[in-house]
Design brief:
heterodimer, A: alpha+beta, Mth169, Chain: A, three-stranded antiparallel sheet, 2 helices, about 35% helix, B: nine-stranded mixed sheet, 11 strands
């Protein structure tokens, strides 16, 4: 068995209005940090697991992201990092 | 009046179950609580009450959709007539579990809204309280709602698509709504408009399940 770290980001689909992202855009403009800005808010999960090999860990990480961490009706997920530790 | 039965599911974090129990008792249901771990359901009506569930971590209703009671309800819908009502967090659980279509997102203004709202349902106007942070109804294909009656907000408070406050599946007897009808049944202070919803449900069960007219 080996230990793996994976990082998952979930966010709303682009066509869906994102109030959190809009608030960050507004405050950025008000504070004159960025005038031209587009923000998409999301959630980050750093997950450490034990699995028999990389293939099993990747398959189960996808299952977790799809069924638990996101709702496919309104959200997308991306596994942004996957490494053996 | 036939004695109908109602079970109210308690999730960790439910907090509207007592008002819900009293509201259905008022309509002469033999009502009782069941656990979210329950797998045997024998009532005419099952209510997923308002409040929270499992801290609503990840997203509202996301973790509750994995409860044994939800798997049992999905099976029961296929096997026999059963009326399912999801109120607020219960509606969120029903959409997360794909028992009702669409999804419920954070309110458009990003704020928690606690207010009385005007609604229309089956050409009837009434007023009920809402109390939610995540009540913006979203659906990507309106065709999916063709077998549904819609409960609509008159003045959309949260950015829901097509002013949708709730849905009623006429074929499968499943209703989900963000407003809280249970709070306006036996309160001395406000309108008694919550009666409209429970009266509707009672009439449907009597007529369609038992042939009582």
């Amino acid at each position: 068995m080996s230990k793996f770290l994976f990082k998952i980001v979930t966010k709303l689909k682009e066509e869906i209005k994102d109030p959190q992202g809009e608030v960050v855009e507004k405050i950025s403009k008000r504070l004159k940090i960025f005038d031209e800005i587009k923000v998409q808010a999301g959630k980050f999960y750093g997950i450490t697991v034990v699995a028999k090999d990389l293939a099993e860990a990747q398959q189960k990480a996808g299952e977790l992201a799809k069924n638990v961490l996101s709702n496919p009706v309104v959200e997308t997920y991306e596994i942004i990092c996957f490494e053996e530790i | 009046m036939k004695k109908l039965t109602a079970s109210i599911v308690k999730f960790p974090g439910s907090n509207c179950e007592n008002e819900t129990l009293e509201a259905v008792k008022y309509f002469n249901f033999d009502a009782y609580f069941i656990s979210h771990k329950e797998t045997v359901i024998d009532s005419d009506l099952v209510i997923l009450p308002g409040g929270f569930s499992f801290g609503d971590y990840v997203s509202c209703g996301r973790i509750a959709k994995f409860s044994p009671v939800i798997s049992s309800l999905k099976e029961l819908i296929k096997r026999r007539k059963i009326f399912i009502l999801g109120i607020c967090n219960g509606f969120q659980i029903l959409t997360e579990a794909n028992i009702l279509p669409g999804a419920i997102l954070e309110n458009i203004g990003g704020k928690f809204i606690c207010d009385d709202v005007e609604l229309t349902f089956l050409n009837k106007n009434f007023s009920l309280p809402i109390a939610h942070h995540q009540g913006r109804y979203y659906i990507d294909n309106f065709e999916d709602l063709k077998n549904y009656e819609i409960i609509k907000y008159k003045n959309n408070p949260n950015g829901s698509m097509a002013n949708i406050a709730g849905l009623y599946d006429k074929k499968r007897y499943i209703m989900g709504l963000m407003p809280h009808p249970e709070r306006n049944v036996i309160t001395p202070f406000k309108s008694k408009d919550g009666k409209n919803i429970f009266e509707f449900i009672r009439n449907i069960i009597e007529k369609d399940f038992y042939g009582i007219i």
